[in-house]
Each structure stands twice: as structure tokens, then as C-alpha cells.
Amino acid sequence: MDALAELAREHAPRVLGVLTARFGDLDLADDAVQDALVEAVRRWPTDGAPPNPPAWLMTVAQRKAVDHLRRAASAQRRALAAAPELIERGEPAAARGLVDEQNDVPDERLRLILLTCHPALGRDTQVALTLRLVAGLTVDEIAAGLLVPAATVAGRVVRAKRKIRLAGVPLSVPSDLTRRLPEVLAVIYLVFNAGYLGHGPDEAVRIDLADEAVRLARLLHRLLPTETEVAGLLALVLYHRSRFDARLDAAGDLVLLDDQDRTSWDRAAIAEADRVLDDAIARMQPGVYQLQALIAGRHAHARTAQETDWPTVAALYGHLVAMTGSPVVRLNQAVAVAMAEGAAAGLAMVEALDGLDDYHLWHATRADLLRRTGRTADALPAYRRAADLTVNPAERRFLAARIRELESL
């Protein structure tokens, strides 16, 4: 990762968190960080990267924020002098939105997640805004992860920042962190998924994002050790992270789970996940992240693909469907049923699903099951549709190979 990319991905969210806490204005902090990144893009190619890039970004972004405030104050003074009756009396919105420092969360990025997951913004808006500002994902990457159009995500982010700025939404970390826990867990898991299978056109995986999500999940687990769903999320991302070294071959092509070299899986991560999940399950407070972790654990402990306990995996997905009603979970359940009962049974479930026509994995799963049931003529257009919807380079190469294979028959 070059210096500019590392600055934007690794350090900008932390600087954004610090400036938001310092100035009490998310929009101001975001503008300042973006202005500083633009200055880095302009200056570093000729001047070279500074010795301490994070410190440089903090200094420049803070200066940009102060400049923004000075210009705003000057404009307000001019407006007040010209038409004092037009100026709202009382505290400005930025002052009304000052961060509550009563809860000391010892990490800038986690604190920023808690701030942007404010209940006044609504669940979908919280997630979109947090992924944009905290994870640094593009609008297109967020849209791919949320299965919504990019324009929808862009609108959510713009409206959220406008509401915070104009309505004076107080950016505060609640004294009881569990009040925002569902939203925070959702964001951390989406960050991990964006790293697990990158939604951009250039990178098959984003290890930096996946590792950041694991770090945040560990930190949240330390802060809330008795919250079983926090433990479930930590176990889940650890199980998935354990397979990263086996997911791509030397050429960067996707290796399916059944074909992975299981000896290269990270056994220390799996053991940590086991300990965390066992403790959570013993508390008898089941939840969606614990169920997903149980499924991932079944895969982690199967010594070969053939030893995978598919009937139990399918049953666990059934419980997860009952809890969530998610069509994506139903799709995963269909895959498990296909492995446990045969491709035809899984295909029937896949074709009964609604609402996933723009989801590339629905088409890819359907294509694979059609191929396995001998319906190659129907599988080919399904693979092509999946390829058209896929932006991840490794997935695109995998689907292209399947298409070539069927075309040659």
C-alpha cells in the first residue's frame, strides 16, 4: 500500500474521530480531513511523503478546520451587519452538537462509530454514514455491500450530514454503550465483509479492512465482555479471518471453500474464536451473530470438505432465517441444503427466492446448482448475469472460467 493510500485508509478515519470530538462538528471535521487529503495528493508526489504521515495529516486537517471556522465566522459577521434580523439567535448548530465526553471510549475509530450511529439518524442512514466516514469506503462499495443503488447511499450520506449540521443533532457517545449496539455491530461486520470480498474493481480482498474490523470487535468485546452478540461477532470474524491465506491462489484467483488448503488456516484465530463463542453460548442468550459464528465454526473444524456437517449447517441456517427473515440468509440456507440433500433440493429453494435479482451471488449460486443438476444450457446465462453484476476481480475471473467451461461443451 503506498503512502497516500495508507493515509486515506488507515489514518484519515482516526483523525476524523479526533477532530469531531475536538470541534463538535462532524461535517466540519470531514471537510477538513478531505481538504488535507487533497493537499497530500497535490504536494506529496513532488515534495515526498513527510517523516510522520499521521502527524502531518492531523496538523494539516486541524489547520483546515480552523480556516473553515474563521471563514464561517467572518461570513456570519458580515451577514449580521447587513441583516441582523435574519440571524437565528442562540447557540449555533455546531455548539448544540458538541460531543459528550462523559463516556471515555479509548479508540478514535470506535468512538466515531458510536457517534455516527446516533438514533436520530435512522438505521440505514447510520450504517451508510459510518461506512463512508469511518471505513473510508466509496459510495459504490457501500452500495454493493448493502445491496442498494449507489444513488441511494449517496443520498443517505448527504441527508445525514445535513441533518447533523442544520438540526443540531447532538453527536454524543451514550453512557450505556448497549443502546447503540445493534448498529455498531452491523457496521463492524459490514467493514469486515468489505475486506473479506472487496467490492471495488481493483482488489479481491482488503486485508486492512478485515483486520480493522477484527481489532474493533476485540476492543468492543473488552469493553462489553458480557454482551453475547459482541462475542458472537468477534468469533464470527475470527473464523472467517482464519481462512484468508487459503482464499486466493498464487495468481490471485478465488479458491472455493471445498478446494482450500485447510492446513493453511490460522488455528490460533480459530482457537480464540472457539473460546469466545463457548463463553457466549454458555450465557444462554442466542442471537444472529452467535448463530452465524456456530455455522462458521462447523466449517473451521471440518478437516476436509467432505467431513463438513452440512445437515447441522442447514438446520442452523433455518434458525437464522426464522430470526432474520433475510433472503440472503435463505440463499445461504439453500446452499447448505444442496450440500446436505442434493443440488435439486437447493435449486428449488433458490428459485423460490424473491428480491435478489440484482445480487450477483443469487445468480452465481443458481448457475452452479443448474450446472450440477445437468442443466448447462440454463446455467450459462445465469453465470453471465452474475459476471455482469460482479465487480470483485477474483470473482469475475472465477465466473469467466465457468462461462468458458460451459461454452466449450
Query: Which sequence of SSEs, written as H and E, runs from N to C?
Result: HHHHHHHHHHHHHHHHHHHH
Share of residues in helices: 55-70%
State the total count of DSSP E strands: 0
Number of domains: 4
Could you please describe the fold and organization of this structure?
It is a single chain. The protein is an all-alpha fold and 409 residues long. It is 69% helix and 0% strand. It folds into 4 domains: 1-83, no CATH class; 108-168 and 181-200, Arc Repressor Mutant, subunit A (Orthogonal Bundle); 224-304, no CATH class; 357-409, no CATH class. It has helices spanning 3-23, 26-47, 53-82, 93-96, 108-116, 123-133, 139-146, 150-167, 181-196, 207-223, 228-241, 244-247, 267-282, 288-300, 310-324, 327-341, 343-351, 360-372, 376-389, 393-407. The two termini are 42 Å apart.
List the defining traits of the structure above:
409 residues; mainly alpha; Arc Repressor Mutant, subunit A; 4 domains; 69% helix
Task: Summarize, please.
The protein has 409 residues and is mostly helical. It has 20 helices and no strands.
Topology summary:
Elements: H1 3-23, H2 26-47, H3 53-82, H4 93-96, H5 108-116, H6 123-133, H7 139-146, H8 150-167, H9 181-196, H10 207-223, H11 228-241, H12 244-247, H13 267-282, H14 288-300, H15 310-324, H16 327-341, H17 343-351, H18 360-372, H19 376-389, H20 393-407
